[in-house]
Amino acid sequence: MVGFNNSRIQTDKRQKMILVSIILSISVLLLASIFVSFYKPVIMNTNYNITNQNANDILTNSDNQVNKAANSSYAVMEGGRNIMLHYQNATTQLPMASTTKIMTAYIACISGKLNDTVTIPKVAVGVEGSSVYLKEGEKYKLIDLVYGLMLRSGNDAAEAIAWYLGGGIEGFAKIMNEQVKMMGLKNTNFVNPHGLHDDNHYTSAYDLAYITCEALKNSDFKKICSTKSYKFKVIDGENKCYVNKNKLLNLYDDCIGVKTGYTKKAGRCLVSAAERNGVTIVSVVLNQYDMWNLSMSNLNRGFEQTKGILIAKGGESFAKIKTQNGQVLDLGFEKDIYYSALKNEKINITYDININNNLPENVKKGEIIGEIKFFNDKHLIFTQKIYTI
Fold first, then answer.
1. pTM, entire model
2. Catalytic residue at 62?
3. What does the alpha-carbon distance between residue 145 and residue 157 come to, in Å, rounded to a whole number?
């Protein structure tokens, strides 16, 4: 009987051990499945020929259906050709708070009216949220309102701009959405110029990055959003100084902007950009609590994935031509010319110079005499004006 009992005890122990092993295996599998369901790898798009016509489809296919309901996102883009570098939930439609003002400022900058005088209407006074404290009847240059919009995030400045350029909020929102359509973007809709919450006012990290890349190609916009402080005088009024709220301008080397944003519904949002060795990187983070550190990490990673190729030195002779009257001209550029490339991209730069017809008999130095088209492996990459040096 003793032998039987010992045998039975040993059998019970083995059964218990097997049972514990099964339970542990099931637990590990459950934990693994939970981890997989919440972990989304970051994907880098290495196809540098991506166009904005198919970019949204590519991103949508990469973002799984679970992430369509995500409440935060980010996107990092190369700013020269608007190439997506890495992202998470990039096509998810989310509120964007005051980063809306990037489009408002861009429209003002391309309007050709920055030096116009704007009389502040009553409807633009006392707008909810951040303000530059406009007063009815005051007269501002449009450019001064844009500085107030971008540096101090003035909602009143946004409405003053909207009424001047669009005849009202709805009219200006229509202009904003026309720009969205022209850019080929699918996940953005504007209903106001400042970003105060509305359920029908939204963007995606990809769309906002693309909008910002386009805006930064405008020299006025780029100068405004990268300015740390701005002094001016209200027409027939007081002297003012706007200090930029975007502390990334002081935290991150080579930062050139762009815009902060916050509402309770949108959370903490930041669009940032930096320029280094001819490469511009744009980062968008939407509803990210640690937006400063994530943005700096995104910019760092963007520069690691790209390289600036110096094509021509500013002020130096790039090419020579002989005019019909026998004058030999040295041609070049005002500034250094860079090509922003991906680290793994094949580089084969060629160019084609087109000289203006009917050049004067004696061309002086510093005159624009034509344009030059640059190609990489037969693909047109950009066009530049060319000068006599």
1. 0.81
2. no
3. 6
